Amino acid sequence: MECSRRSEEIQSLTVEIVQEVARVAGEEVTDLPPLGQTIDIEAVERLAQTEDTRIEFRYLDYEVVVADGNVTVNER
What we know:
This protein has one domain (about 1-75). About 40% of the residues lie in helices and about 25% in strands. The protein has two helices and three strands. A three-stranded antiparallel β-sheet has the order 1-2-3, covered by helices on one side. A hairpin with a 2-residue loop joins strand 1 and strand 2. The longest helix is centred in the N-terminal third of the chain and has 24 residues, at about 1-25.
């Protein structure tokens, strides 16, 4: 049971990141490459669960920040 919840949480964060990048880029989510080709999604999810953690990485031409339960996407 815990594994399925974990999987849902990872998918939720992944979906949120990709949706936000697509929105900022003016693209369809399906037109973007898989996020897992850029980062270790499970590692980001684990770190995102840690209090006062800020995670930054590049995805395409954008800087993605995951902090305090929020996803922010900025053009680089």
